[in-house]
Amino acid sequence: MKCSLLSCLRVNLIFCLGLLHCGEAIVHTEVQTGPLYRVVGSPLSISCNVSGFASDITRKDIEFRIKKPEKPKFEINIISTGDQSFGYAVYTRRVMSKEITLTHVTPNSVLFEIQSLEKGDEGEYDCSVINSESTYHGTYSATTTVKVIDNSLSVSSPASTSLSYNEGDALALTCQASTNTVQHTHLSLVWYLHKDGEDNARPIMSLNRDFTLSPGPGFEARHQAGLIRLDKMGEATYKLNMAQLELSDQGRIYCQAQEWIQDPDLSWYTIAQKDATETTLNVEAREVVPDTSSLVVRISAQSETLQEGQELSLSCNVDSQNLRERFFSLAWLRASVELARIGPTGILSVGPEYSGRVKEGELRAARIGDRDYRLILQPVRTEDQGEYICRAWLQDRGQDGAFTQQAVQDSSSQLVSISATESGLSVEMQNTVGVNEGNRLELTCKVHGVKDQLSVTWQRKSTAAAMFTSVISLTQEGVTEKAGEFMSRKVKATRPATDTFTLELDEVTPSDSGVYQCAVAEWKINSKTNSQSQVATVTVAPADSFVAVSLISRNSRVTVGENVELMCRVRGPRIPITLTWSLQRDASTLDNILTLYSDGAISWSGDQHRYQLKVENKENEVVYYLLINGASRREAGNYQCRVSVFLENFNKKLPPSNKLAVLVQEPVSKLVLTTTNTLTININTDTEMKCSVTSEPSASSRYAVTWLLQQQAENKTILSSDQDALVTFGPQVPPSHRQRISMKRTKGPSFEFSIRQARISDGGSYICEVVEWLQDPRGDWYKLSPVSKTTELTVIEPANDLSLEKNEQPSPAREGDEVELKCNVMSGASSPSLFYKVAWLYTGHDSSNTNVLVELDHTGLLSYPENQKLRALQGRLRLSRPTQSSFPLGIQRAHEGDSGTYRCQVEQYQLDHEGHWQQKASDTTGPIMLTVKVAENNLSIVKEEKSLNISRSQDFPIPCHIANQSSSQSEFQVTWFWRKETETEQRPIFRAYRNSTLQDRFGKGDQLRFGHPLPKVFSLTFLKPRPEDSGLYFCEVEEWLPSLSHGWRKLAVETSGYLTVNVYAEGDVKAISEPECKSDIWIGILIAFVVCSLLVMFLMLLKICRSKVSGGNKSGQNLWVEQYPLKTKPSEED
C-alpha cells in the first residue's frame, strides 16, 4: 500500500511538471532572409525581432556580430543595446560617429543600420538576444548574409545646359541610364522639374521598376491629352516629349534613375540612385492675338539667296487664340500662283503648275507642328525666284461636317533670289561603309572642280523614307557647328586637304546606321553659287555580332588543394570592355568575384584571396585567366565571365559566356587499418579488440571512430568517437550495458574497444569504422570516405552440452487442420537449476525476413512481439511445455498463408552467485518446412465425343457429367459453349453460377432448358433447333472452394467432350429417309414400339432412384426453369 501511494505521488509530480513545461513559451529570433545585395556607399538596414519571452513589455538587450568571408569562424562584435563597449576596435569609430546604429523599434525588435557600406562590411551578420530568464528554451540568435557589390549605375543627359523655347513649342529631352550589375536588377526613371524658389523638385513623368508610366502631380491632364509622353528607346535611352510648353514649365529639368533588387523575402529594395546634369529651360510668352477671329501669319526662308539645284525651304507660322479648337487652311503662293495647300483635315493639294514636280519628288509640304508648316523645293530652278507669301484662313465646320471658309489672312512677302550655276563642282563618296559598334565611323568626301570657297554639311537619315537631319557642318570660314542631337557626341568635321572633307563619329552604336549625305556648297563673296551632294549607306554591326565570349578550363574537376585555371576568351576587335567574373554556388545565389574595368582598375568582392587574375593579349583575342590557388569546397560551383561595353554614356551588356562547373572532390582515402580477424572467448570474461592505423597520417589528420555490431544482418552502433574525441553511445545500447563497454585511443594511433563480463549475446561481427578528417587550404575540415575492418567475436560457454533436434521436419497439412511443430531438447536439460528461454522464429515463403512469433522467457513470461503482418497467425498459436525438454508449437485452424519455415531457438540461463541471470548456452533446431494446402485438384469431367443428325422438330440435350471432385465442399459453375465447325470462335450460350443463378448468354432463352437432376450431373436441352444452330457443343466446369485465407477461390477448370450436332430442314430429312423407309416401314414401326417400351421402363426406374437419393430433391426437376424466369445477369457476388 505504501509503494502504491508513492507511485501515485510520482505520477502526479511528473504530470504537473509536464503542464508547467507546456505552458512555457518558446523563444524565437528572426532576421531578414539573405543574401542581401547592397551597393558600396549605400545604406544597410537589418530588422531583428524576438518573441516567446515571459514579458513582452520588458526591453530586450540585443547584440550584432559579423563573420567575414576571409575568417568564417571568427566572430567580430559590432554593437549592442546594453553595452557601449561591446564593439571591437575596428567598428568603434563608426559606432561612435553614429555611422552604425542599433535602435529599439519596440521592446522586442531592433533596427540595425549602416549609413554607408564599405567593401569590408560583407559577411554573415548575427543578431543575438541576451536571455534574462533562468531557463533556456528556443532560438536566441539568427543570421543573414550581406553581399557588398560595386555601384555600376550610369545616368547622363546629352541636352544642353540651357534651352529657350516659346510658349506652345514642343520640347524633347533624352536621358541614358544603364547598369553593369551581374545580379538581376530593375531600373526606374523619373523626369523632375525644379522651379526657382521651390525646395523640392516636382516629378513630371516616371517609369517605375515594373515598367508602369505615371504622370506627376499637376501633369495628369496633359498626360491624358497626349501632350506629355515618356518613351523608352533602345536599351538605355528614355525620351521625354512635351508637345506644348507652358510658362509654368520653366525651371531646371533633370532625370533620376534608381536601381532595384529583389530580396529573398520578395520585397524590392533600392540599391543605387543617380541624377543626370540639370538643363535650365526658359519659356517665353507668345504674342497675344487681340481678335479671336483673326490670324497672325508669318513666313520665313531658310536661305533667301540660292543657286540652281539647291534646296528652298519656306516655313509658315500661324497664331490664333484657341488654336487647337479651330480649323484652318494654309497655302504658299508665288506671284499670286498657288504652289501647294494644306486643308483643315491635313490633306495636301498642289497647283497644276507644280503637280509634275510633286511626282518627281522636287516639291514637299507638311505640317510640322500645331502652328508650323514647311514647304521644300529641291532642286530649285531660276524660274522659282521671286516673292513668296503664306495665306491662311479659318474654316468653320458645320453639323453636317462641311467646312465654310472665313476671312483670309496673308503673311508678309519673302523674296528669294536664285542664280544659275556655272561651276564644274562634283562630289565623290564611297557608296557603302561598315563599322563595328564602339569603333569610329570615318566618311570621306572627295570634291572635284573647286574654284571658290567650299562649305560642307554632313546629314543623316535612319531610313530611306525619312528626311535628312543635320549632323555637323563646316563653313567656308572653317567654323564647325554640331546639330542638337549630336551635341554630346564625339563628332567632328575636318578638311585635311583642299579637295577632301571627312566626318569622324566616335563610339558608334547600331542606332547610328543609316544613309549619310555629304552636301558641299561653293561660295563667292558670302553668296552660295553652287552645291553638290553624295550619299553613303552606313551599317553599324552590334557588338554581340563580332565579340564572342567563351569560358574553358583544362582542369575543372580537381581534388581539394589543387590549383584551377579558368580561361575567359574574348574574341573580336580591340574595344574597351568591362569584364566580371562570377560564381554561382546554388540556384539562388550569384556572387561576384572581381570586376576588371576598361581603365585597368580591379574591384574585388568579399574574401577572394584565393583568386589571381592574369591577362594575355593575342592576335585575335584577349584571354583573361582566373587562377584558383589551392581550391577548397567553397570554390566549387558554376563560373561565368560577363562582358559589357560602355558606349554613348551607357553600359551595354553582351551575352555572357557559357557556365563552367568546377568540381572540388575530396582525395581518395589512403587509410590502412589492421585488426584481429577472429576472436573466441569464454562467457563472463573480459575481452579487448584493437583497431590500428598503419598508414602514414597527414599533418592535419584527425580520426572519427565508430564501433558497430552486426547480428542477424543488422548493424547497430555501439560506441563512436568524433574527430574531437567526443565519445557517445549508440541509441540501441541499453543503459545497463554501457557500464560493461568502453573505448580508448592509444599511440599509433590505435583504438581499443573493451567488453567486460562478456555474454553470449555479445557475440557477432564487430566493425571498426574509421573516418579520416583533413583541413582544406581555407582551414575548413572535411572527411574522407570511411575505412573499416571486422573482428568476428564468438562467446562460448565451456562444457556446454545443450543440443536440440536438428532433423528437418517437412510438415504438410490441409487448411483448417490442427498443426503441431516439435521442439525437443536432446541433451543438457537435466539440471533443475537451468532455465530456458524459448523463441519460435518464422520465415514466410514470399519473404527473406525472419520474425519472432512467440517467446517464452526464462522467467516464465510469455510474449508475442508486435508485428502487424503476423498478428492473425499469432492469435492462433499455442506454445506449451508438456515435458521439461519439449516446447511444441500448436497452430489452430491452419491457413494457407501459414506456410513457411519455422525454427525453435532455445537459450539456457542460470543464476550466478550474485543473483544475476547468465546465459550459459543456446541452440536452434533444424528448419521445419510447413506447407498448408486448401485441397488437391481432383476435378474430372466425362469427356465423350458424340455426333447427332436431327431435324428441326427434334430437341437435343447437351450433357455435363462430373466424374470426380476435389472436395465435398466444392461448388461448381457450369458454362456451355457453341462454335461452328468452320470457325474457331467459341461462344458462351448459357451459364449456371455456383449460387444457382442462371444466365442466358446466347439470347435464346425460349429454346434452352436447364437441368440439374443430380449433384454431379448438369444438362442443357436445346428446343426446336434450326439448321444455323449446327456445330460443336461442350461444357466448361469451374470448381470453387472456400479458403480461410482468401475466401472463395477457383481451384480447377475442366471441359467436356464435343457434341457435334447437324440440324436438317424437314424437306431434306424426308428426301433422305423416304427411299430407305418405303422398303422397311413395318420394321421401323416395330423398332419404335420396342424403344418406347424400354424408355417407359427406364423413366420409372429413374424416378425410384431419385426418391431414394435426396428425398425428392426439387433441384432435380427438369421443369424448374419453366416455373421460374431466367436471370439474364449474374449477381454482384459472382
TrEMBL record:
SUPFAM superfamilies: Immunoglobulin (SSF48726). It is found in: Membrane. Gene3D superfamilies: Immunoglobulins (2.60.40.10). InterPro entries: Ig-like_dom (IPR007110), Ig-like_dom_sf (IPR036179), Ig-like_fold (IPR013783), Ig_sub (IPR003599), Ig_sub2 (IPR003598), Ig_V-set (IPR013106), IgSF_V-set/TM_domain (IPR051102). Pfam families: V-set. The chain crosses the membrane at residues 1081-1102. It is a single-pass type I membrane protein. CDD domains: IgV. The keyword Protein biosynthesis does not apply. Keywords: Disulfide bond, Immunoglobulin domain, Membrane, Repeat, Signal, Transmembrane, Transmembrane helix. Residues 41-145, 158-267, 290-409, 435-539, 542-644, 667-794, 798-908, 927-1045 form the Ig-like domain. Residues 1-25 form the signal peptide. It comes from the Eukaryota. One of its GO terms (cellular component) is membrane. The keyword Ribosomal protein does not apply. This is Ig-like domain-containing protein. It comes from Zoarces viviparus. The lineage of its organism: Eukaryota, Metazoa, Chordata, Craniata, Vertebrata.
